[in-house]
Every structure is written in C-alpha cells, then in structure tokens.
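Please check this:
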Amino acid sequence: MKIGLSLLCENPKRRTGLTSLFLSFVTHALELAPDLSFLIFCAEGQSLGLDSDRVQEDSRFAGNDRMGLRLLAEHFKIGPAACKAGCDVLITTGLTPLRAGLPVVMQLFTLHHLTRTNRMSPLRSMYRKWATLHGMRKAALIITNTQFACRQILSVNPGVAGKLLQSYEGIDHSRFFPADPASGPELESLKEKFGIPEKYFFWCSNFYPYKQAELLMEAWCDLPEAMRTQAPLVMVGGGGWGDSKEETLAIAQRRGAADTVKMLDWVSDSDVPVLFRHASVFVHPSREETFGRSVLEAMASGVPCVVQDIPVMPEVTGGHAISIQYSDRAAASAALKHAMTDVDWRQGVIKAGLQKAGSFSFRRLSAERLRAIYLAAGKEPPPACLEFPLTYGESIPVPGLAKH
C-alpha cells in the first residue's frame, strides 16, 4: 500500500498544528502497517523530517505562501504525479483535485467560509464554497475530527454520511505534560529568552478574525492592574488572512496595558510545549473551531482553560474548563480572574483535565484513519488498525435531518 499525502495546504515558512498532525499520523501509520509507504507532496524547503526508506518527498510544488500556484498544483499536478509513482490513494486537505486518477481522501476540518463575519474576501469565499462542495461529491472518503464537525458537514451535504469518518485528533504526550515541581531551569529559560515571569495567561494561535483576540484583550485589560503586572498576557502566533494582531495590540496600548502584553510571534517547536506547561491559565476565545487541539494540549500540560462557549468544546474538554462568551466583557474578565486565583477549583480542573486529555492519542487517530483509508482504496486494513471501531457520519444524529 502506497499513500500520497499533500502538505501543500501549509505555509512552508512555518510549521503549524496541521503539520504536526501530518507528522504524527505518518509516524504511527508506519508502525501500524509494515507494508505501507508514503509519497509526501511538499513545497521547496518543506519537509516532515522523517528519516525512513518508506517515506519519499516530492518538493517540486508551491506551498500555501503562493496560493494560486499551490491550487494549480493541488488540482492538476499531484494527482497525476501520485498515479505515476504508483500510489493507491491520495490524501488532501479541503479539496479533491480536478485531475486525480486515483481514490482521494479529503480531510475537511473547517467551514469558515460559511460565516460572513470571518472577513474572507468574496473570491476566496466563493472558491472555498466550490472546493468544499466539489470535494465532498468526488472524494472516496472524507475525514473530519469531531461529531460537531460532522453535523456541520452533513448540514451542507447530507448525502456524504456514508463516507464521512469522524476521528478525534491526538496529543503527543511525550511533548505535552505537566511541569515538574523541580523545573526551575525551564522557568529560568523562559525568563531569559522571552522575559516571562512565573505566572502568565497564555494564548497560542494565529490572529484570524474568528479567533477573537480583540475580545480577549479587552477582557484581560479589565483585570486589576496588579494582576496584569504579576501575570502578563503572553501571545504566541502570527497572522495572515484578515490579521487582527495590530488591532489587538492597539487595544492594549489604548488601555495602558501594552507593557504587560508579550507578543512573541511564532516560536520554535521546542519552545511551544514549555510555554504551555508553565502557563497559569490558557485562553481560547475562538468562536469557530472543529476541534481546538491547543485546548487539549493545555489540559495535557496541567493548565486550566478559559474557552469560548461553542458547540465543539464540550466534546474536547468534557466540561473541565470555564466556558464563556468573550463578548460579555464582565463575565470574561471574572472568569480569567477566577481561573488564576481559585486554588481549589484549579486543583480539581487540572486533575480532571489531565484524565480527559489522556483519552486522546495519535496512535488511535492513525489506526482509525488508516483503517478507513485502506477500505476506501479497496484493500484489507492491517490487523493493528482494527482495535478501534470506526464512527461514520451516518451514525451521528443531526437535528433537522432525516436519518441516512
């Protein structure tokens, strides 16, 4: 079995959560299936960094930093290249190529184009709508990450229920774990490198409009000055489409709180887990997510979370977080203060969060998805992939839709 996998949806200049998901999936898939090999389609300078004779990389294509050329490659070039290389199936994200020639597995993790307030350009929104609908019709298998995402997809196209696989994302527990009480050197390193004190509120995301960084900043600025000084807001992430980073910083400046906000842009892969496990409170005000893996990474790191009250969060957190509407500034500020200061609540939610996060793993993700991919390619799945039952969209109730 040979799988083609496109990384072209990613910007080659920085690694994101999607890149780490691909890396973990491929790593575990190779362990689960001894007969499996991969051909990775990537941009120049982009790589999963796997040293294996069962993984090849083809870097002749454009990545998401060159959108037009990337879409041209995804729709017309990688399908024929995968066929020529003898791939049995091709995995893409957010689309099914116009020219494929082999079964396509489409990963579909977002329907952000359906919300006008996300400030997507009309042309981009039109393309995303077309690509999603076309991809749903043509894909041999559609993979999404939560039951909420399944319901979103089925509300757009109920007919795909039988080929829509729901498979939760995983956590790399070797990277995301609670801080050791004797972790002084790590704290000193954070202080030296980033000027971060022992306590801090932590944000880790891009600054797309739906992430609602501005609402978070207003609520955080409403905290007492002494608390903001003792526990600054540390923001890791960059921008891109509809970037609100400058607007968010402008709020802090207008409110006289800029000195206690630390915007670090994107940091190295090795720094991210350290920043998570030493945070006092993780903040996640995003109004649209199909999963929100950073929340799970915070929980696995033993960090209490204050999240936006959106439908997917109960699935991810199990209720072991404060869920609020960040648009309610008074409630949001009160929640931030409570999460930082209520010792008994913190102990309880940390313990419950660690237990919940422990149920998510990349081995399970890889076994579920690989099993479905083999079936979509008309092949017998490896025995190691049969441990977990598969959940297709047809078994997930969707309000207002007839059962399929």
Notes: The longest strand covers residues 37-43.
